[in-house]
Design goal:
Largest sheet: 2 strands, antiparallel
Shape: globular
Distance between the termini: 38 Å
Radius of gyration: 21 Å
Number of helices: 9
Number of domains: 2
Structural class: mainly alpha
Order of helices and strands: HHHHHEHHEHH
């Protein structure tokens, strides 16, 4: 496998199925020539410049799932819902991390109302973008089976870490295993979010119905606002402390980047609807 072929594998399967052969060839690839919406092209540059272009294009495409090739129009809304769930999980994880580090968002400049507003918007956005299960036994069986396979292992790990922390917390805190326990705890939480997204992405339209366009847009706007509030609050808190808190600043920047990804998804939905 060449470097170029390896980089092509970083692209979503929908892109590889349609353009994988041309992307991996020496002749290069140009999405504009296929009249597909996009923001980067691999072009025909040679050597490492092609690799950089392919890598940047892969990162860009993963942030714009709505413009991926589709077999049916509802797939665009399904992919937007998965992205929204991923961003919501990220916002919740970073908010929890801020609390664990002793800097809960409610104590940041602006008071507790910003944290409450962010939490309300986050929950409201999740409710609006969540696909609804189809009212059939086959759909319920598929949904339950996939959820059990994907979510049970990380949830068991989370429960195990909580139980161990309650029983042996002081011992672990004073031992060299403290960092391992902390890393495992955060890895388990992250795995829950990742697997929840995989459950939703793998079901497609067979077991769930994607949110309707208006409900999806409202949910995305709610999640965007929640990300902006949480990110701005975290940035303000990081800067207001004595000496800029690098971790808090980075968390705020990531939250604002997540808001940008959601706003880009709203723009993509509008663009494809106009086509």
């Amino acid at each position: 496998m060449t470097v170029r072929q390896g980089l092509v594998r970083l692209y979503p399967a929908a892109f590889r199925d349609r353009w994988g052969a041309s992307m991996a060839s020496d002749d290069g690839w140009d999405r504009a020539a296929d009249h597909e919406p996009g923001r980067r092209t691999a072009g025909t540059a040679a050597g490492w410049r092609t690799w950089v272009s392919l890598l940047a294009g892969a990162a860009d495409i993963w942030l714009h799932p709505v413009i991926w090739p589709v077999d049916r129009r509802a797939q665009r809304r399904e992919r937007a819902a998965v992205l929204a769930l991923a961003v919501a999980a990220l916002v919740g994880l970073l908010g929890h991390a801020a609390g664990e580090l002793g800097v809960p968002l409610r104590t940041a400049p602006g008071g507790a109302w910003i944290a409450r507003a962010s939490a309300v918007l986050l929950l409201l956005g999740l409710v609006l973008v969540a696909p609804l299960p189809r009212p059939t036994r086959a759909a319920a069986t598929a949904l339950l089976g996939r959820a059990v396979r994907r979510l049970v292992p990380p949830l068991v790990a989370v429960v195990a870490f909580v139980a161990v922390a309650h029983r042996y917390g002081p011992v672990i805190a004073a031992s060299p295993w403290r960092l391992v326990a902390v890393a495992g705890w955060w890895a388990a939480l992250a795995a829950v979010g990742v697997q929840a997204c995989r459950v939703l992405a793998g079901l497609g339209g067979t077991a769930v119905r994607p949110p309707r366009p208006r409900r999806l847009r409202l949910g995305l706007w709610g999640l965007t606002a929640a990300s902006v509030l949480a990110g701005s609050n975290e940035l303000a808190s990081a800067i207001a402390r004595q000496g800029v808190d690098g971790i808090g600043f980075a968390a705020g920047a990531v939250l604002l980047a997540a808001a940008w990804a959601l706003a880009a998804t709203l723009r993509d939905l509008h663009s494809v609807a106009a086509d």
